[in-house]
Amino acid sequence: MTAVQASLAGTVFKMLVAVGDRVEAGQEVVRLESMKMEIPVEAEVAGTVREVLAVEGAFVNEGDPLVILDS
Questions:
Q1: Helix (H, G, I), strand (E, B) or coil at 39
Q2: What domains are defined for the chain?
Q3: Which of 1, 22, 29, 43 has its CA at 20 to 30 Å from residue 64's CA atom?
Q4: C-alpha dihedral over 3, 6, 12, 18, to 10 degrees?
Q5: Is the dihedral of CA 3, 60, 24, 15 positive or negative?
C-alpha cells in the first residue's frame, strides 16, 4: 500500500482517478490549485487505486494523503 501525498498546501482542483483505476508510475492522479496555479500530483509507483481520500474543492496540507494505491 502506498499513499500519494499532496506536494504542497492547496485546493484539490481535479481528481483524475477513481477506485479500481490502474495507474502507472509518473501518471498524474490529482491536480492541486495554489495561488491560481495548477500543480500536478503524480503517482510514484504503479498500482491500483484502493481509496480516494480527497474530494474536489477540499483544502489539503502538504503531506496529506490523497490517494491510496495497492502495488
A1: strand
A2: 2-70 (2.40.50.100)
A3: 22
A4: -20
A5: positive
Which residue shows C-alpha cell 492541486? 32
- Other C-beta atoms closer than 10 Å to the C-beta of 32 total 22
Residue 66 amino acid letter: L
Q: What is the DSSP string of the chain?
A: -EEEE-SSSEEEEEE---TT-EE-TT-EEEEEEETTEEEEEE-SS-EEEEEE---TT-EE-TT-EEEEEE-
- At 7-40, the pLDDT tens digits run 999 999 999 999 999 999 999 999 999 999 999 9
> How many residues make up the chain in this entry?
71
The reported pTM is: 0.90
Q: Is 55 exposed, middle or buried (0-12, 13-18, 19+ CB in 10 A)?
A: exposed
